[in-house]
Amino acid sequence: MSASGQGLDGPGAPGTGVDTLATPAPADPPDAGRPRRSFALSGNRLIVLVAGVAALSLVAGILLSRLVVSPAQAAADAEPPAAGAITVPVEKRVIANDVTLRADATYDDAVSVKIETGDLGGPAVVTGQVPELGAELGPAGVALEIAGRPVVVLPGELPAYRTLRAGVSGPDVLQLKAALAAVGIDPGRADDDRYDAATAAAVERLYAQVGYPAPSADEEAELAVSSAREGVRAAQDSLDAAQAALTAAQAGASDVEKLESDNAVRAAERALTAATTEGGDVPGAEDALRLAQAQRAALDRPRETSAESAAVESARRQLADAQEALAEAGTQTLTPLPVSEVLFLAGLPRRVDEVLVQRGGTVEGPVMSVSGATLVLEASAAASDAELLEVGAPATVTLPDDSEVAATVSSIETSTGGGDGEEGGDTGDGAGDAAGGRRFVVTLAPGDLTPEQVGALQGQNVRVRVPVSSTGGEVLAVPLAALTAGPGGESRVEVQRSSGSDDSAETELVDVETGLAAGGFVEIVSADGELDEGDLVVVGE
Q: Exposure pattern of 414-433 as b/e (b: 16+ CB <10 Å)?
């Protein structure tokens, strides 16, 4: 009992007078004396975690505050901004007024080439010298070879229509002589329209220059010459005989004839003497003597040669006729220029655009198409644009690769038909079309081109820009929208003047004198007030 009482009086609730039952204290763990490390580390991690969550919450709140817009703010944002002036700066620039066209790049003066082959007497077979596409035909060149003979190219506008040979005359002969002179061959008298021996000799030299034998005369002409030569020989023989007879007649009696006549007179005298002495026929003897004496006297007088002289004159006329016939026949053997062997073309050299025959084929129509060797640009322009252009005006051509080359307006002619080659320039207002719909063909000559540029241009439709007016340098300019009209019709601009802040900006109307306008800008020639580059002008509200 004492033990229990002691236990109740032991440590317990103090002052109660009641002892509590003592329970044994638990034993300390083995590491009770060591520091508690794991508990301290867990506390630091908790602090970091709480800080991170707080930071993320802050960021999320900020983001959400930006996304969430109050109805009042949304209404405010939907309201239009306060009205204000729209301004642009005054600038310095070159103002140019251009006519812009679309042009086709072609070679000038295209023609179809035909060869007259009617004098060949057989099929017109192409045997060689067929040109390649793009080849050039120049003076004294060979365009084609037909039946083994060349077709020689010569400068001239009149087409060949007949074979030129000795004895013919006309404008085609004059053209031939001019062409021969142009290729360095002397044709004789260039102002004589007859095809003569000098012309034939010049044609022979032309064939030697192109490397072909000269054409020869036909067999009939050779036979005619041979016959004429025989006629000349016969006439010469007749003349020789007649002249010999005349000479003999003019010489009188020969010594033999005179001696014979003297002998006859003496014999008559002896006969008369015998008749007288012997009683013969004296009258008959006297008559015989008078006759012999008369004949002797006749031998001493000049003979009558009128017949012989007439025979000589006749023989001479016959010889002259025979010589003329020989000369006429001889001219037919001079070197001719067959119509099938010459091609007259103006504006040489020419470029072959199309070949319509081939070697071994027969010529039955045009053999090729040729054009000038100069590349040109042809554009169609409305009358309103054409009136602004002039021959000699510079232009700029944009090639297919966007590079540019210079060109010059070479001609402006009325178009014979419609065209769609106009792109529309800065100056076009349709006035030309309204005034009858007239259009013009504008031809331009490109400047010096490289072979690559020629190849790029050929057959292309390109953009051509022709400046018709320009300020020539940078000038003060404003947009056309900045111009307004004053009470008196004067032009003016509204300039925004700043006094330090946008809210206090003021505007001022400045009268201006305008110049050239193009591309949406107008030149400011002068201003009745201060207006400089960079100043702001009002173009709208």
A: ebeeebebbbebbbbeeebb
Q: In what order do the strands lie in the sheet with 111-113?
A: 111-113, 368-372, 350-355, 136-137
Tokens of 277: 């002495």
Non-local (6+) Cβ contacts of 321 within 8 A are: 235
> How is 145-159 classified by DSSP, letter by letter?
EETTEEEEEEE-SSP
- CA geometry: angle at 87 spanning 83 and 91, to 5°? 180
Q: pLDDT, tens digit, for every residue of 262-319?
A: 899 899 888 888 888 888 888 888 888 899 888 888 777 777 788 888 998 998 999 8
What's the token pair of residue 308? 């012989």
Rounded distance, CA 205 to CA 185, Å?
7
Going by pLDDT thresholds of 50, 70 and 90, the confidence category of residue 526 is confident
pLDDT at 29: 47
Q: Which secondary structure element, helix H or strand E, spans residue 38, and what is its range? A: helix 37-67
> Cβ(479)–Cβ(95) under 8 Å?
no
Q: What is the sign, positive or negative, of the torsion defined by CA atoms of 270, 271, 277, 282?
A: negative
pLDDT tens readout for residues 382-401: 998 898 899 999 999 999 99
CA pair distance 344, 140, nearest whole angstrom = 10
Cα–Cα distance for residue pair 138/277, rounded to 1 Å: 112
Which long-range contacts (C-beta less than 8 Å, at least 24 apart) are formed by 264-269? 264/292, 264/295, 264/296, 265/289, 265/292, 265/293, 265/296, 267/292, 268/292, 268/293
Chain centre distance of CA 214 = 34
The β-bridge partners of 92 are 476
Residues 386-444 pLDDT 10s: 988 999 999 999 999 999 999 999 999 998 765 445 455 444 444 444 444 789 999 99
Apex 342 CA angle, 337 and 343, nearest 5: 155
